[in-house]
Amino acid sequence: MKCIQILKDGEMDELNITETNTIKKLIKSSKSQGINELIKLYSWNFEGSVICCFGWYDGDNGFENTHDLPPGGMSDFIEEDSSEKIVYGDLFIARYNKDKTLSDITISDYSVFYSDKFENFSNYDSDNDDCDYNDLIEIQPIVVTNDKIINQKTSSLYLDLDYDDYEY
User: Is 144 inside any structural domain?
Assistant: First the structure.
């Protein structure tokens, strides 16, 4: 069966795996690993199958995987949303049928799944956004004297500022 290996730099490759010793074969194929065991991090339901992401949830600085996982992934132990969690080393994407058997997933298949998850995540009606962002900005008056800029509201003092960097 085909699965996808996402290297820590975001590059993707397709791997051929079998249902026996899957985790051992994925570990052997990995070029970069995190700390602890390779484990199923997240899963998503998609078009009658389950897409699973295997990887490492802990690791050393410099071994973070740059790939952004799609939002809405379910995890048995991670509370953070899949789109926000930093993961380490290589990631592996596999597809399982309803009967829990492996099924092929190609980079093209993953692309369709990925686009669908992000489209559904950002599919909202922005016309109903009643928030006026200008109301959130509090203008703080400043006074410029000699080499000092003083925030009148807080009396904070800012020294060594170049006047040419500011518009008045």
Answer: no
Query: DSSP letters along 54-103, please?
Result: EEES---TT-B--PPPPTT-B-SS--S-TTT---EEEEEEEEE-TTS-EE
- For residue 39, pLDDT over 90 is answered with yes
Distance between CA atoms of residues 19 and 9, nearest Å: 27
- Is 159 among the domain residues? no
Name the pLDDT band for 158 (thresholds 50, 70, 90): very low
Q: What is the pLDDT of residues 93-144, one digit of tens each?
A: 999 998 999 999 999 999 999 999 988 755 443 444 444 434 433 434 444 4
Q: Is residue 61 part of a domain?
A: yes
Count of domains forming the chain = 1
Q: Which contiguous run of DSSP H or E holds residue 5? A: strand 2-6
Give the pLDDT of residue 15: 96
Kindly report the pTM of this predicted structure: 0.71
Range of the domain at 107: 2-124
